[in-house]
Design goal:
A 4-stranded mixed sheet has the order 3-1-2-4. It has 69 residues and is of the alpha+beta class. The termini are far apart. The chain has one domain. 12% of the residues lie in helices and 28% in strands. It is built from 1 helix and 4 strands; from the N terminus they run βββαβ.
Length: 69
């Protein structure tokens, strides 16, 4: 599955959200970092942490790594 990372942090939590490429809630193309094909959301989170310390999964497409702050 292909994953992306939102370059813009969430206003209320400052976390950068991880989404699948096909998520209905994904950000605009100019606001994403391509994380590539990952075996699972956990691998995508590991790749995302290479860009930003504060990352979180989308509660719609990456529930395995989503947490509420």
């Amino acid at each position: 599955m292909d994953y992306i990372l939102n370059k813009n942090p969430q206003m209320n939590t400052s976390y950068h959200k991880i989404h699948t490429q096909k998520c209905a809630k994904r950000p605009k193309e100019e606001n994403v970092i391509q994380l590539g094909n990952c075996m699972c959301p956990i691998e995508a989170k590991s790749r995302a942490k290479e860009y930003y310390e504060n990352v979180n999964g989308c509660k719609y497409c990456c529930r395995e790594i989503f947490f509420k702050k």
